[in-house]
Amino acid sequence: MHDLIAYTIFGLVTASIYAIAASGLVVTYTTSGVFNLAHGATGMFGAFVYWQLRFAWSWPAWLALLIVVGVLAPLFGCVIEKTLMRNLADATEATKLAVTIGVLVALVGAALWIWDPQTSRPFPAFYAGSKVEILGVPVTSDQLITVGIGVLCAVGLRVLLYRTRIGLDMRAVVDDRSLVLLNGGRPDRASMFSWALGSMLASLAGILIAPYLQLSVIPLTLLVVNAYAAAVIGRLRSLSMTVVGAVIIGLLQSYAVGYLPTSTVSWLQRLPDTIPIIVLFIALLVLPHQRLRGGASRRSREAFPLPTYRLALIGSAIVVVAAIVVGPLLGTQSLFSMSSGLALGIIGLSLVPLVGYGGQISLCQMTYAGIGAVVWAHATSRGNLLGLVLAFVVAALVGAITALPAIRLRGLYLALATAALAQFCDTFVFGLSSVTVFGHTIPLFGFGSLPASRPNFPLLREASDRTYFVLLAAIFCIVGIGIVALRRSRYGRMLLAMRESPAACAMLGLRLTTVKLGVFSLSAGIAGLGGALLAGLSTQFAPDAFSFFQNLPLLLLMMAGGVAMVSGAFFGAVALGVFSAVGSMSTLFNRAASVLPGLVGVGLGEQPNGVVADIAAGLAKLGRRGARRESAAPAVADAEPVWEWSGLDAPLNKQELAILDTALGVKAGV
Amino acid sequence: MTSSSMATASPNGVHPTAEPERAAGTAGPEPILQLSDLRAGYGAIEVLHGIDLMVPAGGIFAVLGPNGAGKSTLLKVLAGLHPVSGGTIVMAGREVNRARPDDLARSGLCLIPEGRGVFANLTVEENLRLITHLGARPAEIEERTYARFPQLAVRRKQVAGTMSGGEQQMLALARSVATDPGLLLIDELSMGLAPRIVEMLYELVAEIARTGVTVIAVEQFARTILGIASSAVVITTGRVVLAGLPDEVESKLSGLYLGNVAD
Lengths: 670, 263
Prior knowledge:
The structure holds two protein chains of two kinds.
Chain A: H1 2-32, H2 39-56, H3 61-83, H4 93-114, E1 131-134, E2 137-140, H5 141-163, H6 165-175, H7 177-182, H8 187-209, H9 217-222, H10 224-233, H11 239-259, H12 271-286, H13 309-326, H14 332-349, H15 351-357, H16 365-379, H17 386-406, H18 411-427, E3 434-437, E4 440-443, E5 450-451, H19 465-488, H20 490-500, H21 502-507, H22 512-538, E6 540-541, H23 548-561, H24 566-583, H25 587-603, H26 611-631, H27 654-664
Antiparallel strand pairs in A: 1-2, 3-4, 5-6
Helix pairs in contact in A: 1-5, 1-8, 1-10, 1-11, 2-3, 2-4, 2-8, 3-8, 4-23, 4-25, 5-6, 6-8, 10-11, 10-12, 11-12, 12-18, 13-19, 14-19, 14-22, 14-24, 16-17, 16-22, 17-22, 19-20, 20-22, 23-24, 23-25, 24-25
Chain B: H1 2-7, E1 31-42, E2 45-56, E3 60-64, H2 71-78, E4 86-91, E5 94-95, H3 101-106, E6 109-112, H4 124-129, H5 138-148, H6 150-154, H7 165-178, E7 183-187, H8 195-210, E8 214-219, H9 222-228, E9 231-236, E10 239-244, H10 246-256
Parallel strand pairs in B: 3-8, 3-9, 6-7, 7-8
Antiparallel strand pairs in B: 1-2, 1-4, 4-5, 9-10
């Protein structure tokens, strides 16, 4: 009984922190429609700044807290809202997420830059030491303070949203932004306030949780996944349900630590950490979602041209020739960086049909790549090409199996489910020493890393680093041409239609589930292939090469290039290679290079189509201008339409009927 | 130039000035709204090809036209929700080409947008409480509104989205009246509603107009609105093709707008 109370109290302490973080997420999401994946990173940064003020510069705790939570955090929220989020109203869900991922990556990069991760930073709890007894269980004062702040935040937010004028404004903005304007209200002010508030809550949660974890960048940043679970239980809307969700997760996690036989069953050791992730996944699947939305689909800013085979072939030839020419000019380190960029580019290509064409956001492609790599490492130690096929097939199968439960999710919810999957593999599966499938034990990363060989192509056995670089370029091009073919096929059009209007597709009799499942497996397969090739590059690979966090720069740079275009993925591959090459030059460059992908992602808010599409559009414009000068063709923009409809409120007259009949090829009078 | 004209806006904006009980149909000395060669569009496609229009103060001004004629775009442009690409809008003597929608709203213009102009997830009470820029206490606004629309008082705690279409439009009307507008723009009040409800709503509109508010009502279905309007125009494909008194417009309308169904 004593233990149960102790675990319950500890569970409630973590629950309070999750509740604070999750309500911040809900507040910003409901008022701006942007799900802030950088929420955890904001909290992490807040905790670091607090540490700097409180412990490095020895400020009093109240002052440091006031400056971080009361001044810097809301200021940061306002700046983010004003410069980035406000422009995202008509962007797709993928672009919105990418911008917040950009902020996340930039904050993580900046934190690693400012606070050297090698140094240890003790972070004692508030007023630690003094204790009180509750039901015979000693409770420290910091635990009491945390729960108190949690309750205060929950009540305060409720009052703010439902009892104050600014709260009413915030809820009105969610409902109909332009109607608020028509009422003489100032929706921008409400949005800005909500981002400031979200940022404050994030930093408060970060500061409160830091004593329980270590003050280190990635764990604090990813801790927000636990808050996602609570927010999803609140269906990203209800603050009270979010608090309930936080309590469920906090208690479950605490009881798991206390009661699971982790000392006797070794694989259970990591399970408590994954409980929030499992809860998130289950919550996503179980909670009711809105039905397919009918009505007019809004036109988004993102638009991509149909690729041609001619362009794809010419581009491929250029890429391969360039690889042959550039390869000998690069030093060992740069060659490795550029090769890994290309291998990552192949994984990035898997995003083109999935995110670019199908509009399905995935944050777990690196996980599929990791599975491909593990399969490759075990299937062959002599580079048998069948191993690549196997890597593709197994990753595709795992993709299909994991997609199956997530298939009815769309947009943000799908992104969160894939993030949960990646986190689960990251913290649990890849940490196991082996898995046993059908009596066959497959060792995983139990010993830290796995050896992998390079694929042996005919005539190119045991490829040198330079040959492998060219090989990667060639494989990238082959996969790229395949994706162009896919885009031009009936299936490609189906994917596009699914992105534009799932409801209309369903009305046309398309089986959305099959289309989705297909594209998920194909994409996972491509990622698996890329993972195997990436593993072959470094011959030894560790699980952190395929961690959840690795997904973020990959997705960002692919989107920066243009995620619906093979050329965009190539841009992303080169950028990844160059960033890594620059990063390997010196520590300073390394730190700067880790911020860069974040900044690139942030730029997506302004240029959602990606660099390549913008360059192409610019060139096309120049071309048109040249052509116009030559032909001096008359402008057609102002030309009168040949005929006009009277509209559906009146029957057509004879003349209109005749025109319609001709247009439809119907005999008059039928 | 235009932004400064907003900055120096009179506190009254387009509110009716001296004579609140102006008889419908008689044009005041100064038009409340004057459009000259107004152009607007979406990207490269121009939708309004130079609209010239003079709306007299007081009364109901009907804007008719078929689907896609540019009526809704016109209202959005007037309310500051859509940019002007050419020409001028002069509202109560001031050029307001680039005025922001919230500024226009604060100076007495109110648009009830197409569909249901209500905050569907807020209660009736909360919908009304959003109006605070007038300086009136929320309770006062509610009291005035419920006196005029007693049906809404019954539903004050109900979430607006759960009310019937007619009630939602009534709330939209009530909210706009509560802002004490000088110029009320209504986009397709009749959309998706039964004829009986539409008639009832337009009676309310006529009542509002009798208090001195100028109403510009866009409609696709002409009959009801022409019954209460003081003047009317017909727009097709972004141009004004007919303007005049409601009777004149109605007599020519069948040929021009309803194709060959002359009843």
